[in-house]
Amino acid sequence: MKNKKSAWKKWLLGIGIFLILLIVSAILYLRFNTYQAMPEATVLLEDEAVSHEEDWISITPENVSDQIVLYPGGLVETAAYLPLAKDLSSEGYQVFIPDMPLNLAILNTDIIDEIKEANPSDKNWWLAGHSLGGASAAIYADDQDEEVKGLILLAAYPSDETDLSESSLNVLSITGSKDGIMDTEQFVETKELLPEETTYVEIAGGNHSNFGSYGFQEGDKKSDLTREEQQGQIVQLISDFILNQNP
C-alpha cells in the first residue's frame, strides 16, 4: 500500500515539475522573442511630457483636445510606440500606451477602463491598436462601443468572433502597401465585420514594422518610406480623421 502511495506522489510531483518547466519555458520564449524599443523610443521616457505610471505610459500636451489609448502590437515593448505617441501629442492628443501582460494585448483588452477611471475627463476617448493590439482593441469596442468615440486600426483587423458591423463607432483603418506581416486575405474578409462607413487608407510604400519603433520585424517587407515618414503620415491621417468626427 505504501509503495502505491509513494508511486502516486512521485507521479504527481513529476507532473507538477513538468508543468512548471513548461510555463517557465513559455515565459522565457515570449521574453526572448519580444521586440525591444529602439533607443530613439526609450530616450523619450525622459521627456518631461511623458509619465510612466504603474501600468501605462502617458504623454500629455499642454492643451488636450481628445484622448487616445494605443494598444501595442503582439510581443512588442510598450515604449516602442513612444515616437508615434509623441507626435500625436504634438497634435493636442493625450496618449496612453498600456503595459500588457507578456506584451500581449489580448490578455488585457479592458485596460482602457482602468486608464479612464484614473484619468477622468469630459473629452472624447479613442481606442487604437497596432496588429494584435488592434484586434484586441476591436474586442473591447465590440463589447463596450458606447465607452469610446471611435476605433483606429493600425495594420490590424477584427477577429472572426468580433462583429462591429452594426456599431455606430467611427472606425479608421490604416495599412501599408508593403506590409509582409498582416494577412491581407483575412483583412479583406473581415471588412464585413466593421461598420459600412469605416474609412480605409493604405499608405503607399509603408510596411508593418514602421507603425512602431522596434526595428525590422521578421517576415515583413522593406518599406519605401523611412520610419519617420510613415509615422508622420499615420499621425496626419489620425488627426484628420478625429477632426472630421469632431465638427
Give your account of this protein's structure.
By secondary structure, the chain is of the alpha/beta class. The chain is built from seven helices and eight strands, in the order ααβββαβαβαββαβα. β5, α5 and β6 form a beta-alpha-beta unit. The longest helix is centred in the N-terminal third of the chain and has 31 residues. The model has no long low-confidence stretch (mean pLDDT 91).
Topology, element by element:
Blueprint: H1 2-32, H2 39-42, E1 50-52, E2 56-59, E3 67-71, H3 82-89, E4 94-98, H4 111-118, E5 125-130, H5 132-143, E6 150-154, E7 170-176, H6 184-189, E8 199-203, H7 227-245
Parallel strand pairs: 3-4, 3-5, 5-6, 6-7, 7-8
Antiparallel strand pairs: 1-2, 2-4
Keyphrases for this structure?
eight-stranded mixed β-sheet; about 35% helix; alpha/beta; 7 helices; 8 strands
- In helices, the fraction of residues equals 25-40%
- SSE pattern, N- to C-terminal: HHEEEHEHEHEEHEH
Beta-strand segment tally: 8
Which band does the percent of strand residues land in?
15-25%
N- to C-terminal distance: 80 Å
Read across the widest sheet, the strand sequence of neighbours is 1-2-4-3-5-6-7-8
Count of separate DSSP helical elements: 7
What is the approximate shape?
globular
Characterize the main sheet: 8 strands, mixed
Give a quick rundown of the structure:
With 247 residues, this protein is α/β, with parallel strands linked by helices. Helices cover 36% and strands 16% of the residues.
